[in-house]
Amino acid sequence: MKATTISSIMLAVAVLVTGCHKAEDKNGMGPAQEAGKAIDDAGAKAAAESKEAAANANAAAQQAGENAKEAAQEANQNVKEAADRAGDKMQQAGAEVRQESHEAAQNVKEGAKDATAATGRGLERAGEKLQQAGK
Fold it and tell me: Measured between alpha carbons, how far is 126 from 120 in angstroms, rounded to an integer?
């Protein structure tokens, strides 16, 4: 063989030999190891994010429960206050009705008294007239 052919073959073999070596990164991992590490890292990240999301959801649920409890207590207090006000107004209305009934009864008494007095005066005059007519 010629010398140029031998040197060309040697160069080709050298290129092939250097091309067959895997490229190592600073961690010394090959492509399969890097892919496995990437999958592991993605799984760990997803698990951490899921755990954080679950904690946030739990905190939100607890806050919602506390808010609902406070709202129920406030509503209960408002109902009690409204019932107290309604009871007070009913008592006041009952007192007013009793007072008005008493006043109406007094007016009826006075009216009956006045009617009785007027009737008495009318009977007295009629009696006087009968006496005078009988004389």
Answer: 10
Share of the chain above pLDDT 70, in %: 79
Residues 6+ apart with CB under 8 A from 33: none
Would you state the pLDDT for residue 118?
79
Which residues make Cβ contacts (< 8 Å) with residue 25, sequence separation at least 6?
Answer: 34
Burial (0-12, 13-18, 19+ Cβ within 10 Å), 105 = exposed
Q: How far apart, in whole angstroms, are the C-alpha atoms of residue 36 and residue 68?
A: 47
Q: Would you tell me how many other CB atoms lie within 10 Å of the CB of residue 30?
A: 13
The per-residue pLDDT for range 46-94, each reduced to its tens digit, is 889 899 999 999 999 999 999 999 999 999 999 999 999 988 889 988 8
Rounded mean pLDDT of the chain?
Answer: 81
Other residues' Cβ atoms within 10 Å of the Cβ of residue 29: 14
